[in-house]
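Justification of resources, computational component.

The compute hours requested in this renewal are based largely on the per-chain cost of generating structure records like the one below. Each record pairs the submitted sequence with a full structure-token output. That output is archived, and it is also reused by downstream analysis tasks.
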Amino acid sequence: MTTARPRIDVPFQAHIELLQLFLTRRDDIVARLERVLNAQRAPIEYLQDGVRLAQDVEDCFFACADVGANQSRLRGQLEEAHWASGFRPHPIAGLHNGPADPAEMMMRAFYLWRQTRWPGRNGRLRYAHTLFNLSVIRCLELLSVRVWDDGAGGAGDRLSQVQGVLDQLWTIKIVDQPVFVRDARWLIQLAQSLATDDLGAYFEIAERVASLPHEDRLVVHAAGVRMAAGHLRSQIRYRSTKDAAPLDDQRLVSGTRTSNALDFALLVQELVPLLAGYEHACRTGNDQKRLELADAICQGISPDPELFVNRVALLGAYSMIEHLFIAIDPEGRATYTPMGNRHVALLEEYEALIGRVTQSLVDDCAHFRPVAGAYSPYGALYGFSSDLIKHMALKASQPDAATNFSLEDVFAAGDASVDKLAWVNRWRKLPHLKPDVQKQFDYPQEFAEDMFNRVEQALRTRTDGTDGARTGRLYVVSEGAHSSSATSSVPDLPVRYVGSSDPEIVSAHKAHACDEPQLLSDRREGKFVVSYRSAGGWVAISKAMLTEVLGTGRDATIAGLPRAAEDTLKLMCRRMSLPGR
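The structure output for this chain reads:
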């Protein structure tokens, strides 16, 4: 379950007014940023010091004469509140994990310029404008998830204020500047584009989105679906290329499913309102809204269309996160938490909706088929969505940067898809990168086509009248009980799916040895169908067995679990577990 977090009060209106002040003092701030960029003779230690550079960037803003003492107290408050609400970035070696940071982009630009040529004053001014825009976007991004702090009732109005500042930012016409993002509703999802240890924070925001006006809610959900699915497709592409494995390789499929409980759970929760909206658009003849939502839905299921369309029982188990969705009551029985009950209800709604609209999606999906020589979002490659902003920002340090597209355009094909393809490909065509490195990130046309074809095939499989692949059953035999005659012939779950840090259990060949810190880390990420403390450590059963055993139609028996673990397993695999006594 989630733990109580410290609340940091963020005066929303004060931050809006501060950002508006910064916009009126743009030229003064940009001039200060240019002076920071004029650092070709600075020691290398300074050029690589992210903390010092972040302080210098903020000084450029808060040194304005009009910034009062009360406004100065707001410095750093949005970031502090974001981290405290559960979004403190998890350290990742060699990577900046978090919203696009002007100091990080300054360091990367410094590295590029040192390898090539340091720009003159005009070039530095152009990039100073980019960093100004990025700073404002970052603040708006962090502010977008604070719209609920003063009550859900006014969240829609506060989000409109964020949009107003964003619109004001882009009305100031500066030559050769990328428009990073146009729609404030996308900022809510962008603010969550980082790796953290507190997965509950994502579900808290997903639930709060329901308080927004209907149309705003649909846009936020669609943005989340598009960005999460793109992240997962990129992950599949990376692993497939690294291991030289086809997309349907069982180890690849099993590995990506096991490691993505959070993304799968959020996709389910975001897809439900989109599917409901799509069904309504189909019924009322709103063709424009129908295609718009079909596009988002098809992108959303694209990382694993077989799972999301035809193996929903497996999807349910993969999307369960034990420590968030299950609690042990005082009597030692496992029950769903409120967060777990909400997710289970959404799973049931998802299954009903996807069953009702599949034929309509088959009819509509052909509109989104990738075309050779043009851009398709199915070929977008990135780590986290914030990386897309970083690509645009670093490319803006070069005079050949395209500036007529924004984040939203990454996830749409449309009439400008040929120009968009050139835009995406140029992100990594930087003078300090070798041609072979640039080639690694060329737009993958074949991959885009393969990902789309899998969507179409899965939808057609659902509508062609066949029963599809059988999902096996998991027979759970209580501790001290004996298998019934009906299950005596069902094999035990292979030990390779059971890991433990308890030496006694390992020596008894009931589990393979696992490092406990790694086991607990995997537990936080939702990689197990059940985990529990033993006398000498921890025991966990991997979700890999869902695809590799039950997903192939084979049954398995699990015996000897403690009562709470047995109950937990049944709740986690509620559609596939049966009593074995």
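The longest strand covers residues 528-534. The longest helix spans residues 214-243.
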